Amino acid sequence: MTTVEAPVSHLRENPYEIAKQQLHRVAETFAIDPNLVNVLQQCKKALVVSVPVVMDDGRTTVFEGYRVTHNVARGPSKGGIRYHPDVTLDEVKALAMWMTWKCALSGIPFGGAKGGVVCNPKQMSEGELQRMTRRFTSEIINEIGPERDIPAPDVGTDGRVMAWIFDTYSMNKGHSVLGVVTGKPLTIGGSLGREEATARGALYCVREAARKKRLLINETRVAVQGFGNVGSFLAKFLAEDGATVVAISDSATGLSNPNGIDVQAALAHKRETGSLTGFRGAEAITNEELLLLDCDVLAPCALEQVITEENAAQVKAKIIVEGANGPVTPAADDILEDKGVLILPDILANAGGVVVSYFEWVQGLQEYFWKEAEVNAKLNDIITRAFNETWATQENRGTSMRLAAYGLAVQRVAEATVTRGIYP
Ligand code: NAD
Question: Which atom of ligand 1 is nearest the CA belonging to 254?
Answer without folding.
Answer: 20
